[in-house]
């Protein structure tokens, strides 16, 4: 009897966790299309075809549900790139462009509507800043590694390069600039900060990425 109860409880818990993940997946999709403000708990319940009672049992607050959905998107983006120090100048340069591409891709996954909704919202602005800090820190680190290998021009500093890039990237994403157009712009701008004799390596890398369908 005890064993049967234990098995039933595990089964119920597993079913609840499955529904919970399905709700998170649904919300991820919806907020990236429509933003935060148009999404309501009633709308989520209707879209998922679950009762509002069930939804509120799983997620007592809309804010916590959206934060969890945002965290999942951000975690997947972070896991898509290596953050350990590269062993060579070529790898440092490659890592720099991979990090930049991943950050641009993340912002475009969120989309212009969601970014516009989150920026002035006290509930979500800290999340944006936290993600920005993560990517900014690693991109500056990659720029500094390229600088240490003698691949970058002496001026401007890695911090100034990153500051300008991040401001432009975020604002363009909010304005709805096409992903391919923005990725190309970022690559061209970043390419211009490398020494002339090193640009050939960059063009070779980007050409390989294009052939693989990465660009």
TrEMBL record:
Q: What are the alphabetically sorted keywords of the record? A: DNA-binding, Transcription, Transcription regulation
Gene3D superfamilies according to UniProt: Tetracycline Repressor, domain 2
At which residues is the DNA-binding region annotated?
40-59
Q: Which Pfam families match?
A: TetR_N (PF00440)
Q: Where is the HTH tetR-type domain?
A: 17-77
Molecular function per GO:
DNA-binding transcription factor activity; transcription cis-regulatory region binding
**Entry's InterPro entries?**
Homeodomain-like_sf (IPR009057), HTH-type_TetR-like_transc_reg (IPR050109), HTH_TetR (IPR001647)
| SUPFAM superfamilies from the UniProt entry | Homeodomain-like
| Name the UniProt record assigns to this protein | TetR/AcrR family transcriptional regulator
The source organism is Candidatus Rikenella faecigallinarum
């Amino acid at each position: 009897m005890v064993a049967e109860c234990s098995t039933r409880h595990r089964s119920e818990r597993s079913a609840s966790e499955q529904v919970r993940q399905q709700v998170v997946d649904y919300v991820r999709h919806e907020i990236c299309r429509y933003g935060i403000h148009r999404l309501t708990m009633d709308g989520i319940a209707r879209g998922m075809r679950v009762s509002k009672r069930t939804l509120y049992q799983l997620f007592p607050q809309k804010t916590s549900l959206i934060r969890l959905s945002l965290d999942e998107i951000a975690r997947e983006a972070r896991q898509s790139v290596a953050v350990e120090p590269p062993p060579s100048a070529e790898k440092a340069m490659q890592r720099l462009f991979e990090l930049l591409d991943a950050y641009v891709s993340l912002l475009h996954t969120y989309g212009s509507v969601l970014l516009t909704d989150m920026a002035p919202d006290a509930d979500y602005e800290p999340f944006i800043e936290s993600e920005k800090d993560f990517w900014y820190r690693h991109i500056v680190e990659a720029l500094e590694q390229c600088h240490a290998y003698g691949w970058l021009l002496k001026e401007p500093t890695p911090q100034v390069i990153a500051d300008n890039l991040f401001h432009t990237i975020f604002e363009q994403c909010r304005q709805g600039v096409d992903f391919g157009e923005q990725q190309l712009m970022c690559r061209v701008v970043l390419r211009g900060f490398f020494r002339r004799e090193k640009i050939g390596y960059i063009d070779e890398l980007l050409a390989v990425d294009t052939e693989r369908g990465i660009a």
